[in-house]
Amino acid sequence: MLELIAGALWAMLPAYVPNNAAVLAGGGRPIDGGRTLGGARLLGDGKTWRGTAVGTAIGVALALVLDAAAPAVGDALGITLPGFPINAAVGLALGAMLGDIGASFVKRRSGRERGAAFPGLDQLDFVVGALLLALLFAPDWTLSVFTLARVAVVVVVTPLLHLGTNGIAYWLGVKDEPW
Ligand code: CTP
Ligand code: MG
Ligand code: K
């Protein structure tokens, strides 16, 4: 049970931190350059080059740290934790950012302004993006690390973690909305 839950969260960590790092690093030029589609912004001012680049870089850097720490932490817990080859690291971190960007595209098409909530999509967009890009960049690693049981754990636990961390970021005053 510990191996299942700890392994699932460990494997997802490089996908969890990019969005939070982007909140801290955001600002500057929006990716869509102000372009609109059907009267609404393509992505909106909340998706910037700097936030995306810094978020991805922090996620990859964390994966490399976790890769080095996996044997020792696994030993201490008495379980086996996955390491992160660089292609898996990039897939998870960049995929998380792209999933979040894709969600903003969907939100703008459905008439939601920047910052509007979209329950479900907000909490899982980056999970879907991370797993898909990891599958594309590191198929063997992804299929062996993300067993169906671990994906199930991730789908259940991630929304709770996401609401928790965003609530804290809102309370600290670094995020505009608690979702
Ligand atoms: N951010 C960024 N670049 C990204 C993702 C996030 O710069 N690729 C920063 C922005 O400052 C953004 C903040 O992180 O406002 C919070 O991210 P998020 O909640 O995803 O964006 P929203 O502003 O809520 O916009 P949207 O409605 O499009 O999700
Ligand atoms: Mg938001
Ligand atoms: K979001």
Automatic annotation (TrEMBL):
Q: Which UniProt keywords apply?
A: Cell membrane, Lipid biosynthesis, Lipid metabolism, Magnesium, Membrane, Phospholipid biosynthesis, Phospholipid metabolism, Transferase, Transmembrane, Transmembrane helix
Where is the major localization of this protein?
Answer: membrane
Question: Required cofactors, per record?
Answer: Mg(2+)
Q: In which pathway does it act?
A: Membrane lipid metabolism; glycerophospholipid metabolism
Q: Which residues cross the membrane?
A: 49-74, 86-106, 126-146, 153-173
Q: Which reaction does it catalyse?
A: 2,3-bis-O-(geranylgeranyl)-sn-glycerol 1-phosphate + CTP + H(+) = CDP-2,3-bis-O-(geranylgeranyl)-sn-glycerol + diphosphate
Give the Gene Ontology MF terms in alphabetical order: CDP-2,3-bis-(O-geranylgeranyl)-sn-glycerol synthase activity
Q: What are its GO biological-process terms?
A: glycerophospholipid biosynthetic process
Keyword Nucleotidyltransferase found? no
Q: Which Pfam families match?
A: CarS-like
Keyword hit for Lipid biosynthesis: yes
- Where would you find this protein in the cell? Cell membrane
**The enzyme's E.C. designation:** 2.7.7.67
Recorded topology in the membrane: Multi-pass membrane protein
Q: Name one GO cellular component term.
A: plasma membrane
Query: Which NCBIfam families does the record associate with it?
Result: PRK04032.1 (NF003114)
Q: What is this protein's function?
A: Catalyzes the formation of CDP-2,3-bis-(O-geranylgeranyl)-sn-glycerol (CDP-archaeol) from 2,3-bis-(O-geranylgeranyl)-sn-glycerol 1-phosphate (DGGGP) and CTP. This reaction is the third ether-bond-formation step in the biosynthesis of archaeal membrane lipids.
Alphabetized PANTHER family for the sequence = CDP-ARCHAEOL SYNTHASE
Which family is this protein grouped under?
A: Belongs to the CDP-archaeol synthase family.
The molecule here is called: CDP-archaeol synthase
Native source organism of the sequence: Halolamina pelagica
